[in-house]
Here is the input.
Amino acid sequence: MVYKTALELAKYKSEPLRTDRFVKISEREDRSDLPEAACKNLLKNHWLQTWKGILLAKGMTEITLYPMLLHELQPKTIIEIGTFNGGSALWFADIMEMLGTETRIYSMDIDLSMVDEKVKHDPRIQFVQGDCNHIESTFTPELLSTLPHPWFLTEDAHINSVGILEYFHQNGFQKGDYVVIEDTNPLSWKIEMLDEEIWGEEYYENQEMLGQ
Ligand SMILES: C[S@@+](CC[C@H](N)C(=O)[O-])C[C@H]1O[C@@H](n2cnc3c(N)ncnc32)[C@H](O)[C@@H]1O
Here is the structure.
């Protein structure tokens, strides 16, 4: 029975990984199995993707991976840097609710005027306006000391990424917390930046976004 074999193989493939399930980013291989042409087509219209009618700027691979990762990690606090339209904060809130985990969600942006009215007052999400160049002003050490672990930090603004990691590292990160830095595949930038209608000078000049 082919399905039984698939089931057995799935178990076999995941169980031996348990002991070294999490690999340091410095020890990961920097490569993608998806060729540029495939990435291009997969990412082309990701700015049009929605969750409950609100823009959710995630690629198809993230849509698959995030729910599995969140199920595994069961974070008690999710911190999103870069809210945009609010679709992803809402998506995180819905995923955690479906998974039955009580999770506080904080979503930060320099400009919360872009957040859709339908999600602005969702009681599960705390939207906070702030500049991630001054992350300590929004996520003060006092606030961080009240947030239950494990934490799940997703960095999706790509401004001061290293400073943000340093700051959280010095102000509360513990074993079991997890960090996602989105859009680290250099191909995604090459593809997105082709869309000059969206990306102006500001983005072309942002060396951090270009991974430089
Ligand atoms: C890629 S979008 C976030 C997408 C969102 N996480 C999602 O998946 O739908 C990046 C966001 O970062 C915000 N941003 C840019 N510079 C920022 C800064 N200095 N501080 C905080 N947010 C910033 C932008 O306003 C924008 O909404």
Residues 42-194 form a domain with the Rossmann fold fold (CATH 3.40.50.150). Strands lie at 50-51, 54-55, 77-81, 104-109, 125-129, 151-155, 178-181. The chain has ten helices and seven strands.
